[in-house]
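Sorry, can you check?
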Amino acid sequence: RIFAKYLLKFLGYIACCSAVALVFGGVSVSLMYRNYTYLFQKSFLSLPVWLTIGAGIILLPTGFLAISISAKSSCYKQGVLMYLLLVLLCLAVSSAVLAQCYSLQTPSELKSTMGDLIYQYNGTLSKDSGVRLVDMIQRRLECCGVQNYTDWLKTTALSWHLLTENTRVPESCCKERYSDCMGDLSHLDQIFQEGCLKKLEDWFQFLMYYVFWYCVVLSVLGVLTIVINGLLMRQRPFHAIQFL
């Protein structure tokens, strides 16, 4: 019984510390979804985001309750802890499953959407949200095109770059240190040559795996905490916990 209380206290501290990291993961995915919403039009990426954030929020009081029970047992606190752990377990497992599913399905969607955006690109002066998104991605990730800069040579027949004397890429492909860069392909040293797709996929996969493995570990710790709390509840007579 004493060992179980100490272990429960230890798991309570881990839960309190983990709550911040779990919410951080959910918020990071949420920010990516908000910044690149246009690329995730067919996804319900916000679902695992809110499940993860919800799990993190519930994890904090669960940790404090576990620490409180380890100091002074209470059948009411033990009952509430058991319910919170079950809810937390459901949220964590759901988040892990959804994160794994999106990590497998979304890359193909990203490739298709980005390809369409670049194919239909009609110039930096356009007010189209797709154009602004392409420019924003290329500047922020320091990349050019989907696979590489040559993707800009495959755009539509009425493409903006065919109206000029020299074939070029958008100015958002230019490196910041070259203030006179116009995206001219005759000066490849002035533009980013690596594609944006791989950088986007790597960042997205990192966030999804972060959420997945964190939720898996959290689920294992949750089951262990349920077992320990159940062992402590066995020490009480049945009538003391019949309210459950």
Remarks:
- The CA atoms of residues 30 and 49 lie 6 Å apart.
